[in-house]
Amino acid sequence: xxxxxxxxxxxxxxxxxxxxxxxxxxxxxxxxxxxxxxxxxxxxxxxxxxxxxxxxxxxxxxxxxxxxxxxxxxxxxxxxxxxxxxxxxxxxxxxxxxxxxxxxxxxxxxxxxxxxxxxxxxxxxxxxxxxxxxxxxxxxxxxxxxxxxxxxxxxxxxxxxxxxxxxxxxxxxxxxxxxxxxxxxxxxxxxxxxxxxxxxxxxxxxxxxxxxxxxxxxxxxxxxxxxxxxxxxxxxxxxxxxxxxxxxxxxxxxxxxxxxxxxxxxxxxxxxxxxxxxxxxxxxxxxxxxxxxxxxxxxxxxxxxxxxxxxxxxxxxxxxxxxxxxxxxxxxxxxxxxxxxxxxxxxxxxxxxxxxxxxxxxxxxxxxxxxxxxxxxxxxxxxxxx
Length: 386
Fold this sequence. Notes:
Layout (H helix, E strand, L loop, with lengths): L18 H7 L2 H24 L10 H21 L3 H5 L1 H18 L10 E3 L2 E3 L1 H18 L8 H19 L4 H18 L3 H22 L2 H9 L12 H12 L11 H4 L11 H34 L3 H26 L16 H21 L5
Antiparallel strand pairs: 1-2
Helix pairs in contact: 2-3, 2-13, 3-15, 5-6, 5-7, 6-7, 6-8, 6-14, 6-15, 7-8, 8-14, 11-13, 13-14, 14-15
């Protein structure tokens, strides 16, 4: 297989340009699709706050926290857009070790449910650094793979990329967070494929993942994780235990019908039958209240968003830009497929959020950072084609 070769763009310092050129370089469609998906997530948070019976504008309401996180995400997006992405290549190694340090700190001082260590309190808010780690790892991998153009038919370059990801993956597994660990694997696979890495070596690594999965199942996964992974095969076998969440989720999705029951009218949520309805299982709540047509609109927005991310990749004259966009596209696509799949019962439950729609500050801010970097790549390379 031929290796993808892109002539790197010369680093250009930021210089004043006309407003027209800046506007044309900014991918407005990418931003609009992300904002629409975020608005749908806020609508689900609003519905949850109303159905819970508390004050809509109470400080601890889901809706107020969602508005706050959305505002912070847009601020991060704006800062990342204005920041010259070329500096990320210079700072790649400090970013890498900072990333590992944050994940290690989570294990030491983090808190969670049932003995997990996933969240660190910051200014009274809970922040999950494993979400930020996804974007930071994409930056590091993009820099590593871009620096090895013409060498990716070598197994050593591919193993080097794997070794970069391994420490972060292990630290996340120790939290334990199986879902995020799988996202790291998806990001690595997508970026290696788009970089032009040898398909022969990628196939051999995929084959080696089979015995590695057995080792992880035997020695790393906890009993409750195994039960959740197996419950999707037949949730009715343990409706009151491991299969309860999936069973209630399937009821919610099926009861929505074509047009849904209407916003704030979902019975699975208001009667507290459906657990974590604003986080991992928000798609079940969305399907119940907005119906099949609402779900189709969400899918269409995700397809459009991923398409615009890939357009950023294809337009980039810098291999770093192409690989950065490839990593973000892999992240979004994998999380959408797995989240929806686990909600409707065709994939194991792994606790992966639905991008932009799931209520969660760390996920939303991290996505804002990733899309801001893409806009920086667009604008600093002045690729204005629509």
